[in-house]
Amino acid sequence: MKILAIESSCDETAAAVIEDGRKICSNIIHSQADEHALYGGVVPEIASRGHVEAISAVAQAAVREAGMEFADVDAIAATCTPGLIGALLVGANYAKSLAWSLGKPFIPVHHIRGHIAANLLAFPELEPPFLCLSASGGSSMIVLVRDYTDMEILGGTRDDAAGEAFDKVARVLGVGYPGGPKIDKLAQGGDDKAYVLPRSHVDGAPLDFSFSGLKTAVINLAHNAEQKGEEIRVHDLAASFSAAVSDTLVPRLKLAAEQTGVHTLVAAGGVAANSRLRADLEAMAAGFGVPVYMPPLSLCGDNAAMIGAQAYYEFLAGNTGTIWQNAFATAEI
Ligand code: KG4
């Protein structure tokens, strides 16, 4: 079964054709990052308009690269939640209209389920149940994936997402948007113990965490240094911050594995591209004597291939939508 999938939840207009949930036939991503970089972050209205301009050409390119015509695809899928509502509506409405006009099923997909499913594309042997640390720009959580479409959030951030913290810290340090990859690069060779930064703890909810205090600590540190005329050692601060994020996330995935007895460990989302986090996850999983599944960097950030992978399993579970399907800024996984 070949599914044409559309992703437009934030600032990437993406389309892909995926076969049977596991094989990438094409994967096209048109990023708007340069336009948003001018403003230091994603401007929702600009994102929506950018999707309108790009979506038709991106979808056509995906079908062409797969060696097909629109009429050859078996179903059309789109991210319908969570995300920027105007941005989501562009992709969802495009996909619904296409499905309706071609007389094909329409499959609405949850964006975080999609991030998790990126691993299904990379690892043919991976099957539920598994535990997934999903960390991106909009959310950060530990998910028990009981089955392809049966998931439970075991813990997560009480405030900022990990990627949001990376982006804000990058902004304070003046290194540009998107901040995660830039901080990751700066952290190479930095001393991760040079700056003492907080690790959050939520009383009574050991799998929950917070990044707002860590983010504020870095902002205060930068402002204090500026006032005193002191130089910030950017590489050291980037390394110390990256270590604090990793120290917040990795032990919680470990605790979730101990609590549930599920020892198949997976990472997902844009922040799963972070080199410190990847190294720490590998070291932690090695302690259990298991591998940790992490998507290749090309599938960590937003893309439509992951939406097409999840869409296949949603279709098998009967989770199709109608022309009346709405998009939602937030929704339970
Ligand atoms: O998954 P994603 O592309 O979009 C959402 O679904 O939110 O994640 C984007 C986030 C951004 O905050 C970006 O700064 C962060 O992922 N990110 C990284 C890295 N690459 C992307 N954060 C840390 N290290 C990276 N290498």
UniProtKB/TrEMBL annotation:
GO biological process: tRNA threonylcarbamoyladenosine modification
Domain spans labelled Gcp-like: 23-308
EC number: 2.3.1.234
GO CC annotation terms, alphabetical: cytoplasm
Cofactor binding comment, as recorded: Binds 1 Fe(2+) ion per subunit.
Compartment list: Cytoplasm
GO MF annotation: an example: tRNA N(6)-L-threonylcarbamoyladenine synthase activity
Pfam family, one: TsaD
Binding site for Fe cation: H111, H115, D302
Co-factor(s): Fe(2+)
Residues reported to bind substrate: S134, A135, S136, G137, G138, D167, G180, D184, N274
Reaction catalyzed: L-threonylcarbamoyladenylate + adenosine(37) in tRNA = N(6)-L-threonylcarbamoyladenosine(37) in tRNA + AMP + H(+)
Keyword vocabulary terms for this entry: Acyltransferase, Cytoplasm, Iron, Metal-binding, Transferase, tRNA processing
Protein role: Required for the formation of a threonylcarbamoyl group on adenosine at position 37 (t(6)A37) in tRNAs that read codons beginning with adenine. Is involved in the transfer of the threonylcarbamoyl moiety of threonylcarbamoyl-AMP (TC-AMP) to the N6 group of A37, together with TsaE and TsaB. TsaD likely plays a direct catalytic role in this reaction.
Family: Belongs to the KAE1 / TsaD family.
Protein name, per record: tRNA N6-adenosine threonylcarbamoyltransferase
UniProt source species: Butyricicoccus porcorum
Gene designation per UniProt: tsaD
